[in-house]
Amino acid sequence: MVSTGGTTSTPIRKPGKVREKRIIWLILPTALVLLFLFFGGFLFGILQSFGLFSVVENQKSSITLNAYRSAFSSDVVRAGIALTFRVAFLSTVLSTAIALAIALMISRTKRFKSAIIAITQFNIPIPHVVAATGILLTFSQSGIISRLTNSAGLTHGTTSFPIVTNDPFGYGIILSYLWKEIPFICILILGALRGPVTQLDETAKTLGAGYFYRLKRIIIPYIFPSIMSGTIIVFAFSFGSYEVPAILGQAYPSTLSVVAYQFYINRDLNNRPIAMALATITSLIIGLLVYFYMKLTERTGKPR
Amino acid sequence: MKISLRPLSLSFFTLWLFFPFLSIILWSFAAGWRFPSLLPTGYSLRAYRIALNPSGDVIRGVITSTAIALIVGVIATAIGSAAGRAIALHDFKMKRLFQFLVLAPLIVPGMAVTMGIQVLFIKYGLADTGQGVVLAHLIPTVPYVVMIMTGTFANFDKSYEEQGQVLGANRFTVLRRITLPIILPGLAVSFLFAFVISWSEYILTLLVGGGTIKTLPMVLFAFLRGFDLPMVGAASIVFMVPPLILLRFTSKHLVGKSSSITGMGTV
């Protein structure tokens, strides 16, 4: 099949075309899920928050900002915003900082190393509902810790133990998130520490670099992308999830997710758009904060 | 100074991880456990007898949850791995947009999306059905699979497949004998994540299933509201055993020489 330049171009281009076709099949199922279920749901939520696609019968659809106005004028919502910010911020900062410290300690320890990693991993697949239950049974005024401090003479009876579950500040919710997310970020960091950074670190060590110098110049920059992913996932999750505040929170104030659900299941269907407005606001806040965080950390994120 | 602090901190850390488990286990066997006593004053298997009753709420919850999580795990792993392969090994139009879209569900709360889509689910008869719940569970699971599998395929050498083809294997054989064995650790971790996320999901199931689809988290919520603490304990134990069994089989791929979750460092 010796041929001139004109004909050889066909067999050269063909594999490329076949590949393009195959790639479409690779991404299509995921793209459909994301477009129809995720993006569609997100968009429909926003549209409903503006009064469109009303579930109230015989009501004409028209674009209004009523839902947002009612949401922002509600005390429950305002208290919810404050609580949600506090819980998400403290959970994220504390779990990232503690996880980093613990992961570095685990990586430098020799005795019981694999046992500690196993215990840390053990926590990852535990459902949040179970985690919140465990925190409730451990830290409530009649929980195990309260019983221990009582028998040690530190507290006297249930009422002198501080209220840290179903409390107005959100301690219980934060404790539950810390319990789940410290091991999560730890495992992410430990995974990153197993990479090529080990050799770099060894080389630097041989060349006489001290631990804190290597930490600053080699280890942290290298594991930074993992820390960043972990931080973003934890923040978005602790800001928007429902289960934990539903178990460990109070009726008032409660987090935006719980408030939104209350509006959603309210018998008066006119409250539905308010629920959608709260969902939209929540998504918007998380999206903006994550965006700024990524912009802010853009330079630090470049390893080496 | 620093050195002596380390074992102390790590011991405290493991103790703190351990306590909630201890509370749950003790309560599940407790017959009576009034306040000041450190340990239950009596032990019984009542909670487990009720929980493991084949026609009881807990076992029915286990069956429903298992069915949904298995289906979600398989679908999410299958379609997410394909997308992960495309991202790691190919360039295509609007790749950046696609990657952004994949990560978006990690940021936007699933509850916001599900509340929005419920109108359409009602319209198309998916509300209050298992199919609807499975579809809703795909939203938070697929992104994790894509992320993990992008990491797995980033270290994948396509030339193995090409060699197989050159030696005369058809596409199915190449997939079964070459590709799948290489990516198996990634697939296992992906399935673990997808299964566990679906298994643990409460609010999406409640919104779409409308109380008709009773998964295990719903049963546990009911016990929590009823303040039957031994039942809460037993249901919690039943709830966490399957994910832990799955972890047992996949843990060597979580943090190991070939860690499969480094793909998560690519958000």
Helix/strand layout:
The complex is a heterodimer of chains A (304) and B (267).
Chain A: H1 5-49, H2 66-73, H3 75-108, H4 113-122, H5 128-139, H6 144-151, H7 171-193, H8 197-206, H9 211-240, H10 243-248, H11 256-265, H12 272-296
Chain B: H1 2-29, E1 30-32, E2 42-43, H2 46-51, H3 57-89, H4 95-107, H5 110-123, H6 130-154, H7 159-166, H8 171-200, H9 203-209, H10 216-226, H11 229-254
Antiparallel strand pairs in B: 1-2
What features would you describe in this structure?
The complex is a heterodimer of chains A (304) and B (267). Chain A contains twelve helices and no strands. With 304 residues, chain A is mainly alpha-helical. The two termini of chain A are 51 Å apart. Chain B has 267 residues and is mostly helical. Chain B has eleven helices and two strands, in the order αββαααααααααα. In chain B, helix 1 crosses helix 11 and helix 10 packs antiparallel against helix 11. The chains are: A mainly alpha (304), B mainly alpha (267). The interface between A and B is large, with 104 and 88 residues.
Short summary:
With 304 residues, chain A is mostly helical. Chain A is 73% helix and 0% strand.
Shape of chain A: globular
The fraction of residues assigned to DSSP E strands of chain B is under 5%
| Helix amount of chain A | over 70%
Structural class of chain B comes to mainly alpha
Mean pLDDT of chain B: 89
Oligomer state of the chains in this structure: heterodimer
**Given the structure, what is the number of helices of chain A?**
12
> What distance separates the N and C termini of chain A?
51 Å
- Using the CA coordinates, give the radius of gyration of chain A: 26 Å
| Strand runs of chain B, count | 2
Q: Which regions of chain A contain 5 or more consecutive residues with pLDDT less than 50?
A: 1-16
Mean pLDDT of chain A: 86
